[in-house]
């Protein structure tokens, strides 16, 4: 190989003359080179023949960088869509349309379904609103009153109200009343009984404030008995929870108009939707939106898979051609290495080390170009995205997988070249002497 010189200690040939002479290499006593010497020679050869090495590196980079960007975009877009669906519990909600009459046993049976994450009874729609206020200037009119309990997906780990004198406010309602955790608010409900307009008030302690990302409308999350008491009051019965003791005592609550129902996962929405249809119960879900995201994910996976395999096929073919051509070009130099004591395994290792070095350098350059391209995408498109959103993203694990795949391809190609180089005989270096 150009730049490699024979040494007296390595080359031990018994007799060499211009006459007809038999040269035996079987008893060559030169010690087989170690890994360090092989690695140094492979690196120095790349430095000496740097123009060819750069051509191979740039050809690899031209495949690696676009692939990293493509998969970064796919990972960024699909991950955002999927996470947005998962992290928004309202996408898991199965909303019942209209009012019915469902006993406690029906809700208990529904809660045992493997697809159901959370279920709690609801009163009639007209009775799920009330006015919240701290004073005459700070109030939330017609705020939603939503029953809750432990395990409510909307609360996102926030403890449910512990008693019938506490509630959780949405951020929108808290902002309107300018209250925070630990403050008190008044709930006001009204009715018309015997032609007389009446109002009932009760004071509640705010135990937590729910972020807008979980629930954006003005609302108060209360224990179910509070909502039942509000409905009883509007129906003209007593409501001890609102300090209303006049009138007739309400009958035992054995049935409810509907319920708050949440699926366990996105994949459970469709089975639940089908189950309610079989029960002839009208419900509304985000099934169409979920199916759209899944369809987009599938299409993008197919597109990127085709692009990946086409790019990899072209890259492998290009690398095989480049390595085989390089081996043929350096056939005489390979023969000299064999003559210097390099066994077939050493020559194979020599070629593999060069392939790994070239691929590693190309991957570092490709990764740098990916980071630059990712920054450009974020800068140009970041203003059109919500906070903490990303367009192009690869995790460390993704990068390590990509590096491993690139090195595996390089090893495969290098092995093909090594099989060709292994057939080079040491005597080929003597033909032109």
Automatic annotation (TrEMBL):
Keyword tags: Cell membrane, Membrane, Transmembrane, Transmembrane helix
Cellular-component GO terms for this entry: plasma membrane protein complex
Pfam families reported for this sequence: FtsX, MacB_PCD
Cell membrane in keyword set: yes
Nucleotide-binding among keywords: no
Extent of the signal sequence: none
Membrane topology designation: Multi-pass membrane protein
Transmembrane segments: 52-73, 298-325, 346-371, 399-422
InterPro entries: ABC3_permease_C, Lipoprotein-release_system, MacB_PCD
Main location: membrane
Domain MacB-like periplasmic core: 53-229
GO annotation terms (biological process): lipoprotein localization to outer membrane
Location of the protein in the cell: Cell membrane
Coiled-coil residues: none
Domain ABC3 transporter permease C-terminal: 306-426
Protein family: Belongs to the ABC-4 integral membrane protein family. LolC/E subfamily.
Name of the protein in question: ABC transporter permease
Source species: Morganella morganii (Proteus morganii)
